[in-house]
Amino acid sequence: MRTRPFAVLVSIAVAACSQEPAGDSAAPARTGTPAPPSAAPPATTTPEAVAAPDDLDVASLKKTLKCAADAKSGPCAVLNAFGSCKPWNAVVPSGDGRWIGRGHRVEGGKTTEEFTIVRSRRVPSNEVGPGQLPAKVGISDVAKQEGSAFSQADRLIRILERSDVPPRANMALDYLKKRESWPEGFSMRTVGGQVYVASEGGAFVCQGPKQELYLVQRAATRGGSGEGLYATVYPVTW
User: What is the spatial distance between Cα 225 and Cα 10, in angstroms, rounded to a whole number?
Assistant: First the structure.
């Protein structure tokens, strides 16, 4: 049988050309190789729950101040009111509530009187911490340097004590409504439903039957266990 060398050579050349050349650029992609792990999402932290503070220790303060059971005035009358007052809603409907009344400051074994003013300002929930109420409470006084506001404060308080409507011309009323700068503190509920305010050594507030507030603000220095402010304040705006 006669061979055809030329055809054989052509067939060999074609077969050689059809093979893929060796090299990294022509290497087939490997399959089954795991992809590198993606970055883990940042861990989210949940704010820790804050335990409610204890109620005001009324019994201890009464003992320290040697209060009579039927005290009708001064710090002891305020402490007696804490025995029957109800929880106060510090988040007032208007968003900005203001009160004025009589305060009794116990310091160094002496008790002095002053005109106490209180403000409760509603704030967004994202401005307060876990367990805190969306309200900041300011506690201050009408100083003698305020002139007419100071001299007319007693009259305003006596009108509010009777649940009467005060005249708009009263300078203490005008001062209270227009005051903008307040030493504010965050607020939260106590175990028994009082309102605790982070102010000086800590303040406790509850509400009476006519929307008046009873307030005890512990002294920051705590020179004596009974030192601080004891006040009854009446609503002007709420």
Answer: 113
CA distance readout (Å), 138 to 35, 111, 143, 186, 199: 59, 22, 15, 9, 8
Reported as a single tens digit per residue, the pLDDT across 150-184 is 999 999 999 999 999 999 999 999 999 999 999 99
The CA dihedral of 125, 127, 131, 133, to the nearest 10 degrees, is -60
Of 67-81, 179-193, 220-234, the poorest mean pLDDT is in: 220-234
CA 203 – CA 56 distance, rounded (Å): 9
Backbone angles phi, psi at 62, to 5 degrees: -60, -40
Backbone angles phi and psi of 78, in degrees to 5 = -65, -45
First to last CA, the chain: 120
- Compute the distance between CA of residue 230 and CA of residue 227 in angstroms, rounded to an integer: 9
